[in-house]
Amino acid sequence: MSGEDPIKVSYIFPNGDRYEGECSRSASGVLMRSGAGKHTSANGVVYTGEWNKDKMQGRGTLQHPSGALYEGAFKDNMYHGTGTYTFTDGSTYRGHFHNNRLEGDGTFTDPQGRVWMGKFNGSAALGLKMQQGF
Questions:
Q1: What phi, psi does 121 have (nearest 5°)?
Q2: What is the structure's pLDDT at 3?
Q3: How far apart are CA 47 and CA 19, in angstroms?
Q4: Do residues 37 and 20 lie in contact, with contact meaning Cβ atoms separated by under 8 Å?
Q5: Mean pLDDT per 10-residue run, the chain (134 residues)?
Q6: pTM for the model
Q7: What stretches of the chain show up as alpha helix (H) in DSSP?
């Protein structure tokens, strides 16, 4: 970006995806999503948040048609940093993500409201402790 103000666009892609928000021009003159915007895919996935060089980057929300929802940090189109993922059954994970994986310290709340805390490593979460005193 060459210090220009963002360009506001409303665009429908050939595959039916839609984008409304800010763009900037690359050095070669190509428009790229940059700044705040909302992308709705043809299959119903909706991302609302920050963009940089045509990638989800920064804070945002990704809503899946199934009802699953991620709110938090993105890097290079992936969950990366701190965030909250709400599963379709109502359970939630709050904590750290690395390249779309649960990674590091986090809290998992199951559908019955039980809270489990500890270190997560992708699909493994050895040594979780249930929080006492509901």
A1: -140, 85
A2: 56
A3: 9
A4: yes
A5: 76 96 93 96 98 97 97 98 97 96 93 92 78 65
A6: 0.89
A7: none
CA–CA dist 53, 43 (Å, integer): 23
What is the Cα Rg of the chain in Å?
Answer: 18
Distance CA 51, CA 48 (A): 9
Could you give the CA distance from residue 26 to residue 79 in angstroms, rounded to a whole number? Answer: 25
Q: What is the pLDDT of residue 1?
A: 41
State the Cα–Cα distance between residues 123 and 81, nearest whole angstrom: 17
In the block, which residue shows the tokens 């050939």? 14
Q: What tokens does 2 get?
A: 């060459």
Q: Judging by beta carbons within 10 Å of its beta carbon (0-12, 13-18, 19+), is residue 108 exposed, middle or buried?
A: buried
pLDDT at 5: 80
